[in-house]
Write a structure and sequence with these properties.
heterodimer; A: mainly alpha; ABC transporter involved in vitamin B12 uptake, BtuC; two-stranded antiparallel sheet; 2 strands; B: alpha/beta; Rossmann fold; 2 domains; six-stranded mixed sheet; globular
């Protein structure tokens, strides 16, 4: 009989191996899923894992989708490490997009090419403002940040809806619920010709480095994580839990807001009701699959981006619904949670004990 | 061996099976239990005769508790046999143990604060009885053993000694033939210990056997008729404790006697900590309210606070360390400055360092390395701009590990990988090394083996001799008598006047633990 036995300390090997095993299990379950749906599993896997890296253009698209995921996940990782459960990054992302759009709509034909900078800054401010509501309610009234941040997602989407159906609707847009297309000056500079990859990816990678330094090399970053690891020790040391809440939420709001701004001022180019595509929620999975480690999250963001692209391709190539993306994301998270058991426990063949007196 | 004393006595419901007096009630043969990191029991054998008070003596970590949990079915053994009444048994769970007639009183109580005594007992019973019947049974048992207990009182209004009575009555209601007590006196005042012993002797006179786990030698010698000594999971000796001296028992328990602590008289210096009329309600509904606490600690003296845990020590320490900043500003003065409203960081800057009793989770972050754990209270390796110098941090941790003989895998070993004693050495080392003006230590040697405890006490005395003010809160009277220049007693949130060590006796401190100092105060001062 197999038995789970507690390890004296968490296994360093399984910290890395667990996400990889989870990926393998997700692929196996994916194959079974394709078979059950009557599709060729090889073709199905090809759509998810080969198509997105097949050409330079495809790779570019992979990066375009991985960028917001990574940016948001960086902020969330800081939150989760600080024991602040910000589930509402989607809302902060939407508000970032809204604020950015507000500034972008001010541009005209004469605006200089620098105009994208205030647009991005506005996004950062928007995300921070939205996260600050959660931080203030938690700090002032001990309101549960999981519920507050989650509910604010739907409020943010309503605000977006109000603006694109109302005051910001493009008068020449045939009554479609969308703003006018932003001026070229607001466009975030692209890195290569023929690809939609823009400087957002550089900002995200700079964020990775900054977050690594902050978490592992500064006293503030270290103190920030103590309230997550051992709240009593943080109190003993004298680290303020209020400061930890504010810092975590403001940073993650800023990251999500920047991601939103990069989307509307980048690939989308206008404000539409289709800005929220679940990046804020998918980034939660990115953060955990990446072990809340800045470098780990680069890989998990790419993986999650594959699922997004794969889901879209599965719709057009295989005639499967796009929600397959969500199914794969969910499978991966569940497999990861299951595999994480191996980090704290080991599987052992239990000795079969002869019954006493038998 | 003491086989013949009570074994012939018929005990009401088991008298039908007339047992020959040479059959052990419980016999363990070569019991082994391995945990991932440690062999907790290594071929342990022992016999408990009917009507015997059998002591299991050993240091913390010797495997006593694991052995008892195996007997009680709470832990499954890896190898070995258990015989009960001469018949082999396989005890899978505590229900089965209780059905056999084995009851256990754990060191840490499992009681619901908001429920009444009777409701708590009712929850733990296997039999289906009405609450009224349970209350009646409790009254009967309480009367039969002189255990004063009111079934309708909510548990949170009880003292710790009374809570233990609830646990004992719960155990007795199962009509046990073998009662296991795990360190029962650690929460009791000396007077309450005498009362408990009277109950245990009465039980034994009625034919019940008792397994008594302890590391307190004088108790075992006073109570028990047979003793099995464990060290490192193995049986290292068996004896009749009444025929042994403390020294010979200690020899069996730890292998050698540690060097005695040198404690020279010293004239205390300046006033460092001055707490006056500190009153504070507890944020915890079942916590203790501090009322008008007065305590002074001077440079170069060790002041002790004795008392049973749960009498306000926790609340007082929170207020002193700065983790609780609700105290009136001038009720706590540190080197003359009013610090009641300041947090731990500001107080640490003034030279106050604190060693809490919870080591993992408060004194240290379990998953982080020893080096990183330094950053909780030390900032020598942090630059002015907040940058952590990792190599300086490692060097600093290594120095503390070496100086305080911490057994660890180096500065990068996670705190949770250390044994309790070694982690405590590291934490005490971290705070002592900071050259504090005032060190506050809570339960400095709780759960430590004798060697580590002696080392920590020596470090505290050395710190005092170097001119630091030291405040020690402890449940262990022996320790306070060894360490302190002056002593206070804490009871129900009040602090007694201080008593010089030369004037303190165990009897006096014991009666003060029940809060009875006001009538003797006039004579003392």
């Amino acid at each position: 009989m197999w038995k789970l036995e507690a390890r004296p300390e968490p296994s360093a090997f399984w910290r890395i191996a667990s996400p990889l095993l989870a990926l393998v299990l997700t692929v196996i379950l994916g194959v079974l899923l394709f078979l059950a749906l009557g599709k060729d599993p090889v073709k199905g896997l090809q759509v998810f894992f080969w198509e997105p890296i097949r050409s330079a253009y495809a790779l570019g698209e992979l990066v375009v989708k991985a960028t917001p995921l990574l940016l948001i996940a960086l902020g969330l990782a800081l939150c989760f490490r600080s024991n602040v459960w910000n589930i509402g990054a989607e809302g902060q992302y939407v508000m970032g997009a809204v604020f950015a759009a507000g500034v972008a709509l001010l541009a005209d034909k004469t605006s200089g090419a620098w105009f994208f900078i205030p647009v991005l800054l506005a996004g950062v401010v928007g995300g921070m403002c939205w996260a600050a509501i959660t931080a203030w309610l938690r700090d002032r009234f001990h309101a549960n940040e999981i519920l507050v941040s989650l509910m604010l997602v739907y409020v943010a989407i309503m605000v977006l809806g109000f603006l694109v159906y109302g005051p910001w609707k493009d008068p020449l847009g045939y009554n479609f619920p969308q703003s006018k297309t932003f001026e070229a000056a607001t466009q975030v500079p692209r890195l290569f010709k023929g690809s939609r990859v823009n400087i957002g990816v550089l900002l995200a990678l700079a964020g990775v480095a900054a977050m690594w330094v902050f978490l592992f090399r500064t006293r503030t970053g270290w103190a920030q994580q103590i309230s997550g690891l051992a709240p009593a020790a943080a109190r003993y040391a004298g680290f303020s839990s209020r400061r930890a809440i504010w810092l975590a939420l403001l940073v993650s709001g800023a990251c999500a807001g920047l991601a939103g701004a990069l989307e509307v001022a980048g690939p989308i180019g206008q404000l539409t009701p289709y800005v929220p595509v679940g990046y804020g929620f998918a980034a939660i999975i990115v953060a955990f699959v990446g072990r809340l480690h800045p470098v780990g999250m680069v890989f998990s963001a790419i993986l999650m981006s594959m699922f997004y692209i794969g889901g879209e391709l599965a719709q057009s190539r295989l005639g499967l619904p796009k929600s397959l993306t969500g199914v794969f994301q969910g499978l991966l998270l569940f497999c990861l949670l299951a595999c994480d058991v191996l980090m704290n426990y080991r599987l052992r063949l239990a000795p079969v004990r002869a019954k006493a007196g038998a | 061996m003491n086989q013949n004393s009570y074994s012939g006595l018929p005990s009401d419901e088991f008298s039908s099976s007339a047992r020959p007096s040479n059959t052990a009630l419980l016999e363990l043969r070569n019991i082994s239990k391995r945990y991932p990191a440690v062999l907790a029991n290594d071929r342990v054998s022992l016999q408990v005769m009917p009507g015997q008070i059998h002591a299991i003596l050993g240091e913390n970590g010797a495997g006593k508790s694991t052995l008892m949990k195996i007997i009680y079915g709470a832990v499954q053994l890896d190898q070995g046999d258990i015989r009960f009444d001469g018949k082999p048994v396989h005890i899978r769970n505590p229900q089965q143990a209780r059905a056999l007639g084995i009851s256990m009183v754990f060191q840490h109580f499992s009681l619901f604060d908001t429920l009444s005594v009777a409701q708590n007992v009712w929850l733990g019973l296997d039999k289906s009885l009405s609450l009224a019947e349970v209350s009646r049974h409790i009254r009967d048992k309480a009367a039969a053993y002189g255990l004063d207990l009111e079934p309708d009182r909510p548990v949170h209004t009880l003292s710790v000694g009374e809570m233990q009575r609830v646990e004992i009555i719960r155990a007795l209601l199962c009509e046990p033939r073998l009662l296991i007590l795990d360190e029962p006196t650690s929460v009791l005042t000396p007077q309450a210990v005498d009362k408990l012993f009277a109950v245990l002797r009465q039980l034994v006179a009625e034919g019940c056997s008792i397994l008594y786990i302890s590391h307190k030698l004088h108790e075992i010698r006073a109570l028990c008729t047979h003793c099995t000594v464990l060290r490192g999971g193995k049986v290292t000796g068996e004896c009749d404790p009444r025929e042994q001296s403390n020294a010979s028992l200690s020899q069996m328990m730890i292998g050698s006697e540690p060097a005695a602590l040198v404690h020279s008289e010293r004239t205390p210096g300046q006033l460092v900590l001055d707490v006056s009329q500190l009153s504070l309600t507890s944020p915890d509904p079942f916590g203790t309210r501090l009322s008008a606490v007065d305590v002074q600690v001077h440079a170069g003296e060790i002041v002790g606070i004795a008392g049973v845990s749960g009498n306000g020590q926790r609340e007082l320490l929170y207020a002193l360390s700065g983790e609780d900043t609700r105290a009136a500003s001038d009720s706590i003065r540190l080197g003359g400055l009013a610090v009641g409203k300041q947090g731990p960081l500001q107080r640490r800057a003034l030279g106050l360092h604190f060693v809490p009793d919870e080591r993992l989770g408060r004194g240290a972050v379990p998953s982080l390395s020893l080096a990183h754990n330094l950053l909780l209270t030390r900032s020598e390796a942090v630059s002015g701009s907040g940058w952590i110098n990792m190599s300086a941090l490692s060097v600093q941790a290594q120095a503390i590990i070496a100086k305080y003989q911490v057994k660890a895998g180096g500065p990068q070993a996670p705190a949770q990988s250390l044994s309790g004693g070694n982690l405590q050495k590291f934490i005490v080392g971290r705070e002592v090394d900071a050259k504090p003006k005032l060190l506050i230590v809570s339960q400095p040697t709780w759960g430590l083996d004798v060697g580590a405890a002696a080392q920590i006490r020596a470090a505290l005395v050395a710190l005092r001799d170097a001119g630091c003010a030291v405040l020690v809160v402890s449940e262990e009277l022996d320790e306070l008598f060894e360490l302190c220049d002056r002593m206070h007693v804490m009871a129900q949130g009040c602090l007694s006047p201080s008593l010089a060590r030369s004037q303190a006796t165990v009897e006096k401190i014991g009666s003060w633990m029940s809060g009875l100092w006001s009538d003797t105060e006039t004579r003392v001062s």
